[in-house]
Specification:
Distance between the termini: 61 Å
Helix content: 10-25%
Number of domains: 2
Strand order of the largest sheet: 6-13-11-8
Radius of gyration: 24 Å
CATH architecture of the largest domain: Beta Barrel
CATH superfamily of the largest domain: RNA polymerase II/Efflux pump adaptor protein, barrel-sandwich hybrid domain
Number of strands: 13
Shape: elongated
Strand content: 25-35%
Oligomer: single chain
């Protein structure tokens, strides 16, 4: 049996030659259990190394990804992003060139803190350097600037909603 390890195919013999800490018998047993139980992914972590075994569907060949453990693990994972709406509005798609898009995945905020007024409202004129909102990612609040001139036509995202990279946030006219 052969495994894909760090994007290269290895046999039992080559794994032993590379002096890795992987016990090939344990790895084979994990793959066998994974196939028998129709699992698509297994992650094993310790202080020195990480082993991830993935397979695309229950009938595909497993893939093993081996790497060093990360230096520091975050205390908590970020909240999953809300799914994008099934059908974006025609106004947003027509004026997509004038939409201000999120440069990252995170949480959208219209104001710097709960007691302050919003950065912009519908009808406000903005310039390229006008801060229009915040996107919080990994406990860092990133100011999002308009980067173009115009008048705020619509704010497409509600305060506190999760946003995706490239998602339109505000439409200018």
């Amino acid at each position: 049996m052969s495994f894909t390890l760090a994007q290269h195919a290895f046999t039992e013999h080559t794994l032993e030659e590379t002096h890795t800490m992987i016990d090939i018998r344990k790895l084979k047993e994990l793959v066998r259990l994974m196939v028998e139980n129709e699992l698509t992914e297994i992650d094993l972590h310790d202080q020195q190394e990480t082993v991830t075994i993935k397979r695309g569907n229950p009938h595909s060949e497993p893939q093993v990804i081996y790497g060093a453990a990360p230096a520091a693990m975050p205390a908590s994972a970020p909240a999953p992003a809300a799914p994008a709406s099934a059908a974006p509005s025609e106004a947003a798609s027509e004026t997509h060139a004038k939409a201000i898009e999120s440069p990252m995945v995170g949480t959208f905020y219209t104001k710097p803190d709960p007691e302050s007024k919003s950065f912009v409202s519908v009808g406000d004129s903005v310039g390229p350097d006008t801060v229009v909102c915040l996107v919080e990612a990994m406990k860092v609040f990133n100011e999002i600037k308009a980067e173009k001139s115009g008048v705020v036509e619509r704010i497409l995202v509600n305060d506190g909603d999760a946003v995706e990279f490239g998602q339109p946030l505000i439409v200018l006219k």
